[in-house]
Amino acid sequence: MKAEKALIHELSKPGRTAYSLPACDVPVVEHHRLIPSEMLRAEPAELPEVYEVDVIRHYTELSRRNFGVDNGFYPLGSCTMKYNPKLNEEVAQYAGFAKIHPYQPEESIQGALELMYELQRDLAALTGMDEVTLQPAAGAHGEWTGLMMIRAYHEKRGEVRAKVIVPDSSHGTNPASAAAAGFETVTIRSNEHGLVDLEELRAAAGSDTAALMLTNPSTLGLFEAQIVEIARIVHDAGGLLYYDGANSNAIMGIARPGDMGFDVVHLNLHKTMSTPHGGGGPGAGPVGVKKELAAFLPAPTVVKRTDGSFGLGGGAEDSIGRVKAFYGNFGILVRAYAYIRSYGPEGLRRVSECAVLNANYMMRRLEPYYDIPFPGICKHEFVLSGKPLKKFGVRTLDVAKRLLDFGYHPPTVYFPLTVEECMMIEPTETESKDTLDAFIDTMIRIAREAEEQPERLLNAPHHTVVKRLDETQAARNPVLNCSCR
User: Fold this and answer.
1) Most buried of the four, 195, 288, 404, 428, by CB within 10 Å?
2) Are 216 and 247 in contact (CB under 8 A)?
3) What are the Cα distances from residue 293, in Å, to 149, 185, 240, 244, 319?
4) Is-contact 186 165, C-beta < 8 A?
5) Is 315 left (phi over 0), alpha (psi -120 to 50) or beta?
6) How many CA within 13 A on the CB side of residue 11?
7) Spatial CB neighbours of 86, under 8 Å, sequence gap ≥ 6
8) Any idea of the CA torsion for 16, 21, 22, 28, to the nearest 10 degrees?
9) Taking the CB of residue 373, how many other CB atoms lie within 10 A of it?
10) Residue 482: is its pLDDT beyond 80?
11) Residue 48 phi/psi, 5° resolution?
12) Which pLDDT tens digit goes with each residue over 368-426?
C-alpha cells in the first residue's frame, strides 16, 4: 500500500533552511522608511522551515495531481480542451521569438511583426472580417473590446443605444461583458428546438438595441439555421451582430461569421487554435471587425508598409485605445500561427469535420442511457441530461464525481441553465475512437450503477486524493491551507 506522503508543514523543523543568501553589501534601509508601520507584521510569518529538496518534492508531488490534456481525456463542453501540439511549443521557443523584447526597435523584430501581420490576415480570412486586433488577452477580454467598439460606433453616429440582446443559452461571459461595457442586457428565450426564438428577437430589437451577442453554433451544440434572418432583424433595427467565437472549432474552414451577417467577432486562440488553456492563462482573444468598424480598433495594430517592411500603426482618432500592454500575448500568438500554418485551409476544415463527427458519434451511443433534449444533429458538442437518473436518487453532479474514479475530467455540468441536470460534452477532433469508446463505456457503466448501486455514485469519488466534499460548506467556508489532504 502506498504510504501517505508527509505534507510540507509536517516536515518543518526549527533551523532548517532552503537557501542561503550572501551578506548584504549595500546600506540597510529601515523598514519603516519604505513601508508604513501599520502595514508591517508584528510577528514573522509562520512559514515551514524545510530543506530545499523538501520544497521541490512537495510541489512536484502537487503538480502530479493536476489534470490536463496531456494526462487524459478532457471533454469539458464549451471550453474546447484540445491537445496542444508540441510542434507549436518548439516554434514558440525559437530564440527569435522567445528572447525578443517589445521595446526593441521595429527594424530588429521584423520576423515577429511579420508573423503578427500574417496572423491578423489569416484570422480575418477565417472569420470573414476585414481587420483584426491581436491585443485582447482572452475571450471575455475580446468580448469587452468588441462591445467597446460597438459603443464607439453608435456614439460616432450620434446614437445612444443602451441594450445588448443575449439568448438564454449564451455563455455567462456575454451578459457580464455587456454590463462591464456599460450596457443593459436583454435576455431572449430559446424556442422548443433550442434555437433563437425569432418572435422574441423581433419584439426585443429596437431603436435602443446596440447589438445581439450570439454563439453559432450555440452552447447547446446547435447551429442557428435562421442566422441570415436573425442578422436581418438586428440590422433593420440599427443594431450590430457580435459573434462569440468560443465554439468556432465546429465551423472552422466551413462557414464564416462574416458571411452570416456578423459585424464583430472574437476568437479564443486558446480553444480553437490549440494553444495552452487554463490555469489562469495566458490566453488570446483576437477581435475581427467589418470595415465599418475598423477605425475603432485598439491601437496599435501591425501594418505592412509600402516598402514591404512591417511596423506598428493604427491609432486613428476614433480608436478605443490600447486594451493590453504591448501587442497581446505574443507567445500564444506564435503557437496559434504555427497551428494554422501546419494545417492549412483544408486541414482546418478537416479539424472541424472530425470534431463534429466525434460529437455526433458519442451522442448517438449515449442516447439510450441519458436524455437527449435536442436529438437532431449536433455540431462540435452536445448536451445530455441526467434527469432520468433522478428516480434513483442520482443527479448529474453524482455522475461527474463518479467519473473522477475512472480518471476522467468530468464534462461541463449544469450549463446551459436551460437544460435540467445538464451535461455538456465536447470531445474535440483530438481524440481517437478508442478513447471515445472507453469514455462512452464508462458513462454507460455509471448509468447502470445509478440504477443498481446508486450509493456508489452518491459517495463518489472513492479513489481521489480528496474524497466527497460537502458542496455547500466548501463554497461558503473554503479551507485553503496546506493541511488538507
Assistant:
1) 288
2) yes
3) 7, 22, 10, 17, 10
4) yes
5) left
6) 17
7) none
8) -110
9) 17
10) no
11) -60, 140
12) 999 999 999 999 999 999 999 999 999 999 999 999 999 999 999 999 999 999 999 99
Listing DSSP states for 337-370 in one string gives: HHHHHHHHHHHHHHHHHHHHHHHHHHHHHHTTTS
The per-residue pLDDT for 447 is 98
* pLDDT at residue number 479: 79
Between the two ends of the chain, the Cα-to-Cα distance in Å is: 17
Cα torsion angle, 59, 64, 66, 71, sign: positive
Residue 375: predicted pLDDT: 92
In the predicted structure, residue 39 carries a pLDDT above the cut 90:
no
Pull the grid cell for residue 18.
Answer: 532552503
Question: Other C-beta atoms within 10 Å of 94: how many?
Answer: 12
CA distances from 63 to 59, 276, 279, 390 (A): 6, 16, 12, 36
Which is more confident, 483 or 308? 308
0.85 surpassed by pTM: yes
Would you state the pLDDT for residue 1? 39
Residue 467's CB is within 10 A of a number of other CB atoms, namely 12
User: Are 86-342 and 357-476 in the same CATH fold?
Assistant: no
Residue where the block lists cell 491585443: 135
Specify the higher pLDDT residue, 283 or 255. Answer: 255
Query: What is the rounded distance in angstroms from the CA atom of residue 268 to the CA atom of residue 143?
Result: 10
- Residue carrying C-alpha cell 469539458: 76
Query: Which cell is 157 given?
Result: 453616429
Domain boundaries, the chain: 8-64, 86-342, 357-476
CATH 3.40.640.10 describes domain 86-342? yes
Counting residues of the chain whose pLDDT is more than 90, the rounded percentage is 80
Does the CA dihedral 410-411-416-422 come out positive or negative? negative
Q: Is the pLDDT of residue 180 over 80?
A: yes
**Cα gap 269→283, rounded to integer Å:** 7
Query: Residue 193: how many CB atoms within 10 A of its CB?
Result: 12
The cell numbers describing 314, all together, are 493604427
User: What residue type is assigned to position 122 of the chain?
Assistant: D
Kindly state the cell numbers that stand for 69: 490534456
- 205-255 confidence digits (pLDDT tens): 999 999 999 999 999 999 999 999 999 999 999 999 999 999 999 999 999
DSSP-derived 3-state class of residue 75: coil
| Structural domain 357-476, CATH architecture | Alpha-Beta Complex (3.90)
438 within 8 A of 407, measured Cβ to Cβ:
no
Please give the single-letter amino acid code of residue 3.
A
